[in-house]
Amino acid sequence: MIITENYFELMDNVELLCKSVKNSTSYQNYIEKKQKMNENKEVQQLKNDFLQAREKFDQIKDYGTQVPDFRTLQMEAQRKKRELDLHECVAAFRFAETELQAMLDEISEKIAQNISSEIQVEAGNPFFDKGERHKNCVRLHNR
């Protein structure tokens, strides 16, 4: 790649965009919720409980249902994960994380759309989307 003045100007604009994102309420909310979650003693205990339960299950999961406590350990790991995920601080963090990701997805789409309608942008959370593979790839000229 040949570095030109345009490249430096582009990098300056990228830096400005990053600063704007970091000054946004979505980002500030994300940082606040993350800090609260990480400082919460109850969340840390729930996380440790989940990690221990998952580790116990991971040790036997390759053997499947032949292991006498397979279902018990599997259910315990799932229960601990659910307890962690449903904690108020964790749920608030996940919501803030999703909100920030949506903003970043929108920025990516707008940049791509301004460059070329042929550029495909991965958008959304594939965990929540149903359907065929690459359904989240958006051809911007079809919008």
From TrEMBL:
InterPro entries per record: Bact_com_dev_regulator (IPR052767), Com_YlbF (IPR010368), YheA/YmcA-like_dom_sf (IPR023378)
Coiled coil recorded as keyword: yes
PANTHER family to which the protein is assigned, alphabetical: REGULATORY PROTEIN YLBF, REGULATORY PROTEIN YLBF-RELATED
Biological source species: Pilibacter termitis
Coiled coil: 27-56
Name of the molecule in the record: Cell fate regulator YlbF, YheA/YmcA/DUF963 family (Controls sporulation, competence, biofilm development)
Keyword annotations from UniProtKB, A to Z: Coiled coil
